[in-house]
Known about the structure:
The chain is of the alpha/beta class.
Amino acid sequence: xxxxxxxxxxxxxxxxxxxxxxxxxxxxxxxxxxxxxxxxxxxxxxxxxxxxxxxxxxxxxxxxxxxxxxxxxxxxxxxxxxxxxxxxxxxxxxxxxxxxxxxxxxxxxxxxxxxxxxxxxxxxxxxxxxxxxxxxxxxxxxxxxxxxxxxxxxxxxxxxxxxxxxxxxxxxxxxxxxxxxxxxxxxxxxxxxxxxxxxxxxxxxxxxxxxxxxxxxxxxxxxxxxxxxxxxxxxxxxxxxxxxxxxxxxxxxxxxxxxxxxxxxxxxxxxxxxxxxxxxxxxxxxxxxxxxxxxxxxxxxxxxxxxxxxxxxxxxxxxxxxxxxxxxxxx
Length: 331
């Protein structure tokens, strides 16, 4: 099943990116999708037209754009005979220009090497996090030193035992479709992880004459409701991909008690996962809540590739300037 039709690869010149771009090419070929490559150079600060040494600032900006374009041409050249790859260099704020391009060209996947800044332990830099928060399409970030395919995919799902959370259900279905198809196409091991907890346990013990039994009964009731939800999700996966593919894929399902921000990173390490597929938006329609606190906490801890998705209906707060086309790179 083709997942993507129009893929955008965003260059990250601060790291080695040959492996990440090779992954983008393979993904485009497997999905019969178009592939574009984008880089963004910072704008030369406005001021006098001439620098003290006589350099024209417009020429300086154009030279910066040309230098980046040459880097992209060298990156793309080995694949020119395999794909028709479009190259674009824009000028401005990195994450804003990237999102402008996505809105304008209707890309359905952004793939990018992670910044991996040396001054913090986190894999993802400030532009990465802005894209994760604000990008309207799925964002796939990968370590620059990644040299192999995704042998193990972990999909983090948040199941509602009562089936009343429509936003979460839509997000889970996206995660199911993406992780299942990627695992099948890449012959990868697939694991689904759902974290649950029983927040009312202490309160139940205060109300009961037999606190121990009340606690155990309550916790088991909560656990079993989440287990049933996980079984329903398993059936949905089999229905989507078919019994034969499901048997071939043999996905594993993990039900773990604890906070997702702790459980998911632990499972990533335990399984030595290469790719984590997860949702990043807690709720839509709440001003300022563009990424869930749980997702933020997980992203602070992971060192593997991340494919982050948002539920249908998410609207990026970043808009095209004046509803028009973003400024183009100098000729």
